[in-house]
C-alpha cells in the first residue's frame, strides 16, 4: 500500500471549498444534490481509507494473520504500525460519531413528532402549536408516513393570508422533496470527516432556496414569497434566537429574500466543477487502488500464486 | 396583495389553510364567511362550510352558535403550556441537531441582517414592509405567551 491510501483522507480539505463555491453558482436543486452526493462519496472514500490502513496493520498481528490463513508476512506494504494504530483510533472515533449522530437524530425527530401529536391541533398536513413565539418547520414522517408542517400560532398571526399560503407551500416543498434525507446524509458524512462540515450551511441554504422557489411558483408571485420570508424572520424579533450565533456578515434570510426579488441567471464555473469532479474521482480511485493493493498483498501472504 | 390560490387543491391542503386562518384570528371565532374572505374568493362557501364541519368532527376546532350558523375556534388545551414545554425540549438540542432534522422556515438573523432585510422589504414595496409585519401580530409575538393565546374558548 502506498501514498494512495492517505489521499482520500486529505482530499475533502480541497473538495469541500470547491463544492461550496460551485453550489453557490448552481440552481438550488442541483446545488443540494451536488453537495449531498459529493459529501457522501468523499466520506465513504475517507472511511474506506481508514479501514484499509487499520486492516493492513491488523494483519501484522499474529492472531489476525492466522485467522486470514496467512502463511507469510504481508509484504510490499508500507503501512507502519503507528500509522495503523492512528487509523484504528480514527476509525473508532468515526464509528462513535456515527452512532451518536444517528441516536440524537432519531431522538430529536421522535420527540418533535410525539409533541406535535400530543399538543398540536391538526388539519390536513398542518399541525399548529399554541405558542406566541413564531416558528415553522417541516417535520419528516416516520418511514412510510407523510411528514407534517408544524407552525406556531405566533407565526400564523405574523403573516397575512397570502403569506401563510407561501409559508405552507414552502414547507410542503421540503416534505415532498424529502429534504431531510439530504440533511441526514450530510450529518452522517460530517461524522466521517469533519472537513465536510463546511458544506452544512451551503446545503441548508440550497434546500431553503429550493423550497422558496417552489413556494413562489405555488402562489404565483415571487414578491409575495419574499415578503412572507421577510415578515416571518422579523416577527421573530426581538425574542432571542439560539441560531443568531451562526450568521456571518449577511445571513441566509436576506440572501433568500434578495434572490426571490431579483433573480439572476446562474453561471456554472466550469473550472471548479472540473476540479471537484477530478478530486472526487481521485479520492475514489485511490481508495479502490489501495483496496486492490491490500488484497494482492494478502493473497501473496496466503501463499497463493499471483 | 394578490389572492392566495386555494382553488382546486387536495382537501388536506385546504384543511390546513382553513386551520391556519382560524389560528391567525387570535381567539376570535370565525364564521364560514369570514374564513372564505380570508382565503380568497376562489373557494366556494359550501366547501369552507364542509371543511369546518369535518374539522369539528375530528375535534380540531370548537364552535359556537352565530346567527343562523356557527362560528369556529381552534381547539387548544391548556393554552401554550404544552407547546412551551416542547419548545424548551427542542431548544435543548443543539443547533446542529435541529438543523439536520427540522428544515425551518426562517433561521435567525445576524447583527446586520435585520437592517438589510428591512431595506429589501421596503424596496419590495409591501404595505406592511415599513414596520416589519402586521402590527398586532408582531406585538403579540413580542409579548410571548401574553393575552393572545388565552383567548375565549
TrEMBL record, chain A:
Q: Which Gene3D superfamilies match?
A: Metalloproteases ('zincins'), catalytic domain
Locate the transmembrane regions by residue number.
33-53, 81-102, 271-292
- InterPro entries named in the record: Beta-lactam_resp_regulator, Peptidase_M48
What Pfam families has UniProt attached to this entry?
A: Peptidase_M48
One molecular function GO term is: metalloendopeptidase activity
> How does the cofactor bind to this protein, according to its record?
Binds 1 zinc ion per subunit.
In this chain the Peptidase M48 domain maps to: 126-188
The answer on whether this UniProt entry bears the keyword Protease reads yes
Q: Which CDD domains match?
A: M56_BlaR1_MecR1_like
GO biological process, any = proteolysis
What are the protein's UniProt keywords? Hydrolase, Membrane, Metal-binding, Metalloprotease, Protease, Transmembrane, Transmembrane helix, Zinc
Sections of the chain in a coiled coil: none
Cofactor(s) for this UniProt protein: Zn(2+)
Entry superkingdom: Bacteria
User: Which family is it part of?
Assistant: Belongs to the peptidase M48 family.
Give the PANTHER family listed for this entry.
Answer: POSSIBLE SENSOR-TRANSDUCER PROTEIN BLAR, SLR0241 PROTEIN
| Name of the protein described by the UniProt record | Peptidase family M48
Organism (species): Actinacidiphila yanglinensis
From TrEMBL, chain B:
Region (Disordered): which ranges?
125-153
Locate the compositionally biased regions of type Gly residues.
Answer: 143-153
- Composition bias of kind Low complexity appears in 125-142
Q: Name one Pfam family in it.
A: Penicillinase_R
GO MF term (any one): DNA binding
Q: Sorted alphabetically, which keywords does the UniProt record give?
A: DNA-binding, Transcription, Transcription regulation
Taxonomy, superkingdom: Bacteria
Ranges annotated as spanning the membrane: none
Instruction: Please name the GO terms of the biological process aspect recorded for this protein, alphabetically.
Output: negative regulation of DNA-templated transcription
Spell out the Gene3D superfamilies in the cross-references: Winged helix-like DNA-binding domain superfamily/Winged helix DNA-binding domain (1.10.10.10)
Family, per entry: Belongs to the BlaI transcriptional regulatory family.
Q: What is this protein called?
A: Predicted transcriptional regulator
Q: Write down the species.
A: Actinacidiphila yanglinensis
Amino acid at each position: 500500500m502506498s501514498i494512495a491510501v492517505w489521499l482520500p483522507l486529505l482530499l475533502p480539505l480541497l473538495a469541500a471549498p470547491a463544492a461550496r463555491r460551485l453550489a453557490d453558482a448552481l440552481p438550488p436543486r442541483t446545488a443540494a444534490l451536488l453537495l449531498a452526493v459529493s459529501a457522501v462519496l468523499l466520506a465513504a472514500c475517507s472511511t474506506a481509507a481508514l479501514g484499509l490502513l487499520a486492516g493492513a496493520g491488523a494483519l501484522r498481528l499474529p492472531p489476525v494473520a492466522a485467522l486470514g490463513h496467512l502463511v507469510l508476512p504481508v509484504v510490499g506494504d508500507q503501512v507502519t504500525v503507528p500509522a495503523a494504530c492512528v487509523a484504528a483510533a480514527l476509525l473508532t472515533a468515526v464509528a462513535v460519531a456515527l452512532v451518536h449522530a444517528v441516536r440524537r437524530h432519531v431522538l430529536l425527530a421522535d420527540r418533535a413528532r410525539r409533541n406535535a401529536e400530543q399538543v398540536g391541533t391538526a388539519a390536513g398536513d398542518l399541525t399548529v402549536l399554541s405558542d406566541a413565539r413564531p416558528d415553522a418547520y417541516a417535520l419528516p414522517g416516520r418511514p412510510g408516513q407523510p411528514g407534517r408542517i408544524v407552525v406556531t400560532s405566533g407565526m400564523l398571526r405574523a403573516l397575512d393570508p397570502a403569506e401563510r399560503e407561501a409559508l405552507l407551500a414552502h414547507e410542503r416543498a421540503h416534505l415532498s422533496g424529502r429534504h431531510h434525507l439530504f440533511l441526514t446524509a450530510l450529518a452522517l458524512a460530517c461524522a466521517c470527516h469533519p472537513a465536510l462540515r463546511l458544506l452544512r450551511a451551503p446545503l441548508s441554504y440550497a434546500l431553503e432556496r429550493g423550497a422558496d422557489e417552489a413556494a413562489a411558483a405555488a402562489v404565483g408571485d415571487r414578491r409575495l414569497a419574499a415578503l412572507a420570508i421577510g415578515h416571518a424572520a422579523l416577527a421573530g424579533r426581538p425574542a432571542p434566537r439560539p441560531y443568531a450565533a451562526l450568521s456571518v456578515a449577511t445571513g441566509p434570510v436576506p440572501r433568500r429574500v434578495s434572490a426571490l426579488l431579483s433573480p439572476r441567471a446562474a453561471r456554472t464555473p466550469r473550472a471548479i466543477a472540473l476540479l471537484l469532479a477530478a478530486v472526487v474521482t481521485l479520492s475514489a480511485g485511490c481508495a479502490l487502488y489501495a483496496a486492490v493493493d491490500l488484497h494482492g498483498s494478502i493473497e501473496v501472504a496466503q501463499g497463493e500464486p499471483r | 396583495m394578490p389572492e392566495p390560490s386555494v382553488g382546486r387543491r387536495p382537501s388536506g391542503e385546504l384543511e390546513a389553510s382553513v386551520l391556519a386562518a382560524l389560528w391567525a384570528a387570535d381567539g376570535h371565532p370565525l364564521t364560514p364567511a369570514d374564513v372564505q374572505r380570508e382565503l380568497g374568493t376562489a373557494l366556494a362557501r359550501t366547501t369552507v362550510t364542509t371543511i369546518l364541519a369535518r374539522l369539528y368532527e375530528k375535534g380540531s376546532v370548537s364552535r359556537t352558535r352565530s346567527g343562523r350558523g356557527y362560528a369556529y375556534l381552534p381547539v387548544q388545551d391548556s393554552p401554550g403550556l404544552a407547546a412551551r414545554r416542547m419548545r424548551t425540549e427542542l431548544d435543548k438540542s443543539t443547533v446542529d441537531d435541529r438543523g439536520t432534522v427540522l428544515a425551518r422556515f426562517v433561521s435567525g438573523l445576524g447583527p446586520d441582517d435585520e437592517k438589510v432585510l428591512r431595506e429589501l422589504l421596503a424596496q419590495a414595496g409591501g404595505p406592511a414592509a415599513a414596520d416589519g409585519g402586521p402590527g398586532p401580530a408582531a406585538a403579540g409575538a413580542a409579548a410571548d405567551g401574553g393575552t393572545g393565546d388565552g383567548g375565549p374558548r
